[in-house]
Amino acid sequence: MPMIYFLAIVLAIGVAAYIIGRGRAAAQTGGAQKQHSRPHYHGWWAFMLAALPALLLIIVWSVGSSLYMERHVEAQLPEQTADSPIASRSLALGMVKSLANALRRLDAQALDNLPATFAELQPALAAKGAALAPDTQDYMIPIATEANSTSDTLRLTGGVLALALALGGAALGIRSIQPRARARNNVERVVLWGLLGSSMIAILTTVGIVLSMLFETFHFFSVVPPAGFFFGTVWDPRFAAAGATDSAGQFGLIPLLAGTLYIALVALLVAVPVGLMSAVYMAEYASRSVRSVVKPALELLAGIPTIVYGIFALVTLGPFLRDLSAALAGGSPFIQAQSIFTAGFVMGIMLIPVVSSLSDDIITAVPRAMRDGSLGLGATRSETIKRVILPAALPGIVGAILLTASRAIGETMIVVLAAGVAANLTLNPFEAMTTITVKIVNQLTGDLEFNSPQTLVAFALGITLFAVTLVMNIVALYIVRKYREQYE
Amino acid sequence: MNIMSQEKLEEAVSGGMTAKPNEVIKMQGRKVGVFYGDKQALFDVDLDVRQNQVTALIGPSGCGKSTFLRCLNRMNDTIDSARVTGKITLDGEDVYDPKIDVVELRARVGMVFQKPNPFPKSIYENVAYGPKIHGLAKNKAELDQIVESSLKKAALWNEAKDRLNEPGTGLSGGQQQRLCIARAIAVSPEVILMDEPCSALDPIATAKVEELIDELKQNYTIVIVTHSMQQAARVSQRTAMFHLGYLVEEGATDKMFTNPDDKRTQDYITGRFG
Ligand SMILES: Nc1ncnc2c1ncn2[C@@H]1O[C@H](COP(=O)(O)OP(=O)(O)OP(=O)(O)O)[C@@H](O)[C@H]1O
Ligand SMILES: [Mg+2]
């Protein structure tokens, strides 16, 4: 019986405990003692006592038994020797596992008279749709059969234990219902733990991601010296055929970092002023009818996939700017078809709705009393906005800009199409440059050897990107703390 | 200016108001009506505000006191749906005349709101806000001077002088309200409108603000909305009673509280309705 059935039964016991508990508590109301908690709290507490420990047991048992099974099977595998037919022990382990899974598809009769060799067994399994490695060994068949029966036993034991636990919990929960029992406090404490757990998930995931990237990054730095990565001005990873040894290449971060920041800067120079001004217009000046058209239109703009902006830059804006500059300079264009300016500009357009929509909400949230106070002193509307509303909204607006900046830094598609993939180092905004994210994609696509520096550099780049955004966040937090004007 | 106010005085007297000859009428409302959308909230209000006196507006909740007050410095303009009819003058000039600059009007007719609303800036910046906007100080020393004297007039100087750079929102409710009064005084208005300035304050802070109002009337003309009959009796010289959007009765505070003409005023003052 798969674990999922036990899970369902446990939940059913929990629901039953809820219903019985609530009924019992309801029956006690109106007695001599005033109830501490409303009946449904008693029901919930009974549910929690019945279901939560049992669920926890099921989870722990499942994880534990799969770990156990792994070691159990591995212990039965023959010693690895130079002339073993299978290259490594972990490969053999994988084969046993797939064989065990495949065997589960056979019916009881077929299992009772299993053939002794894989060659005979394979057609029967193939008929059931199980594709197995052709060099699966004969000795694996009894191991797999034994593994299946052991894990069945384990699962059954765990399931029965969980059911017993659920029944015990339900009984305990229902029996403990009395007028003065503090079911409400208990339930709320459990909910609190649930909330805490949820917030931990985000933090732990982040930590996990960073740690795994760090690990690969160290791996990378064991091949390429960190100084060459952080201070190198040439990006030329030189893809070599897998296994070749003379494939050092140069992994200079500077051109990519410069390109990333440059393009993001251009994008922010476009998006922040325009977005902020349109937010001020919408929040403070626009009539309701104008607002009801402009705001959804802007939000629609935010919904366009970035690749579409990229295509626009590649097909329309880039060639247009090139031809325009050619006409202006009389002959050779000074703006390349793919350039920082084009990419930054298009990215800026893409980010306008992000800035304006967020800032609009923030500006509208400034209390009316602030506006009235300023207007009542004879300030004009624009003075009020400049001197009272924007300062009051500053922390939120910095947050919005920061969010925008991280999007600009993380953007990939527009850069590939509008600024190209050439890792140049230049100050001229009309030339091509590329960014960290583009190179990460570049390094990880194609047929690669996973352990080569060409691939590992992607993790170093990722960590760098992470560090850049982290520093930006810290700086912004500092700015906000320093200049915040708090209103209540 | 004197001649004009003389004219107005006669107008007031002929309109049935009892004004002593030495009293100058600072602001005047004639047939003032206010609509919020289609709903009329104020009907044909005729009311005079005398210079260097405190005029109290009383009446049950929702009767239009705040609405009338907000007409006087055109704060109703900030409400999209509001529309004002009739005529309101300041020193004989129509304040709703298109030639009038609202901003200038509001500098002359300042406002203190029901809930203290200091800006999220330092105490100093709160008071300096108006003078800076209107360019009242030529240099930092003058600005300092204005801030100090405004805070002194608002009876907040002693409590605030050592913490001028701390945020105004960090003050207590009563201190915040006095800060808002200082902020209004700092632009040297001629008229100060106060909408229930003490409703968020404890008795001690209220007493301080009342004392302050009494002093302020030497230099300013004050209109105050209040729900406290004692407060109206204590601080005001004139009282106007509103009910359901109409001005029921207006007169000298002594008379209103001892011998009102209208039954509704009597009932309201003695607490029988409202
Ligand atoms: N912004 C607005 N939009 C629509 N109607 C409004 C608005 N402000 C006030 N009103 C209406 O106008 C009428 C008068 O309101 P007003 O605020 O002047 O009363 P009030 O006398 O100040 O009352 P209170 O003593 O409770 O402050 C009320 O019926 C109110 O509902
Ligand atoms: Mg009011």
From TrEMBL, chain A:
One of its GO terms (biological process) is phosphate ion transport. One of its GO terms (molecular function) is phosphate transmembrane transporter activity. NCBIfam families: phosphate_pstC. It is found in: Cell inner membrane; Cell membrane. CDD domains: TM_PBP2. Signal peptide: none annotated. Keywords: Cell inner membrane, Cell membrane, Membrane, Phosphate transport, Transmembrane, Transmembrane helix, Transport. The gene is pstC. This is Phosphate transport system permease protein. It comes from Kumtagia ephedrae.
From TrEMBL, chain B:
The keyword Translocase applies. The keyword Hydrolase does not apply. It is a peripheral membrane protein. GO terms for biological process: phosphate ion transmembrane transport. Pfam families: ABC_tran. Its main location: membrane. GO terms for molecular function: ATP binding; ATP hydrolysis activity; phosphate transmembrane transporter activity. Keywords: ATP-binding, Cell membrane, Membrane, Nucleotide-binding, Phosphate transport, Translocase, Transport. Residues 19-269 form the ABC transporter domain. It comes from the Bacteria. It is found in: Cell inner membrane. Part of the ABC transporter complex PstSACB involved in phosphate import. Responsible for energy coupling to the transport system. This is Phosphate ABC transporter ATP-binding protein.
